[in-house]
Specification:
It is built from four helices and nine strands; from the N terminus they run ββαββαβαβαβββ. With 188 residues, the chain is α+β, with helices and mostly antiparallel strands.
Length: 188
């Protein structure tokens, strides 16, 4: 009889929560640069004076925003509003990060001119959306021996792209053939 597996009775690890900012009497700095409820700068004042400006019965607290600054920056506001603004900011950052996602265009050595034009239009669509592109020239079987022809075909494809672009790194050979990462040149 095999030994009994007791994994289902083990404790699950606790999720890692982001650290809460210091509030009110948890703040140890003696002087703080305080920002009021409406965003106005109240200047550098002592911690006790700043705590006197809070209204705990209304949910208005002193929240440490930038503990590394000299002097540390604290804001007088509702903790719930602070959490909401932080979540909104993180969501916006995540969306901005996702928009610059690497897109892939795959071509082959045997691709005819029209096939390459279809891939060029696809690459142009990715450029218009602001994505960097990885162009992969896929080689199969005996095609892997003729690396010079593969590099020539890849460079020919890059010349077909009407949008000005730059190579993020020089073309390199992977397991299935050469690839190159390119990005649209943004003119300022």
């Amino acid at each position: 009889m095999p030994p009994m597996n007791n994994n289902r009775f083990q404790r699950r690890p606790m999720p890692i929560l982001p650290p809460r900012p210091l509030m009110n009497h948890q703040i140890t700095a003696l002087e703080l640069r305080v920002v009021g409820e409406n965003g106005e700068n109240l200047g550098v004042i002592s911690r006790d004076q700043a705590i006197a400006l809070t209204r705990p019965e209304e949910g208005i607290d002193l929240i440490l925003i930038a503990p590394a600054a000299k002097p540390p920056v604290a804001r007088i506001m509702s903790y719930d509003k602070f959490r909401y603004e932080e979540a909104k900011r993180e969501k916006k950052e995540k969306a901005a990060q996702k928009s610059a996602e690497m897109k892939h265009v795959q071509i082959t050595v045997r691709a005819a001119q029209n096939d390459l034009m279809v891939k060029v239009r696809q690459a142009e669509k990715f450029f218009a959306e602001g994505h960097p592109i990885e162009v992969v020239l896929r080689l199969r079987g005996r095609e892997k021996r003729n690396k010079d022809l593969a590099m020539e075909k890849l460079k020919e494809f890059l010349k077909m792209l009407p949008t000005e672009h730059r190579e993020l790194h020089p073309p390199r050979f992977g397991q299935n053939g050469p690839s190159v990462q390119i990005a649209k040149i943004i003119k300022s």
